[in-house]
Amino acid sequence: MAIGIDKLDFYIPNFYVSMDDLAKARQVDPNKFKIGIGQTKMAVNPVSQDIISMGINAAQDILSEQDKKDIDMVIVATESGIDHSKAASIEIHSQLNIQPFARCIEIKEACYSATAAIQLAKDFLSNHPGKKVLVISSDIARYGINSGGEPTQGAGAVALLLSHNPRILELNDDSVAYTNNVYDFWRPTSERYPVVDGKLSKDAYIESFNTVWNEYSKRTGYDVKDFESFCFHVPFTKMGEKAFKTILNENVEDSIKNRLMDAYQESVLWNRDVGNIYTGSLYLSLISLLQNHTFQPEQKVCLFSYGSGAVGEIFSGSIVEGYEKVLDKEKHLNMLDSREQLSIEEYETFFNRFDNQEFDLERELKQDPYSKVYLESIEDHIRTYKIEE
Question: Which InterPro entries match (predicted)?
Answer without folding.
Answer: HMG_CoA_synt_C_dom (IPR013746), HMG_CoA_synth_N (IPR013528), HMG_CoA_synthase_prok (IPR011554), Thiolase-like (IPR016039)
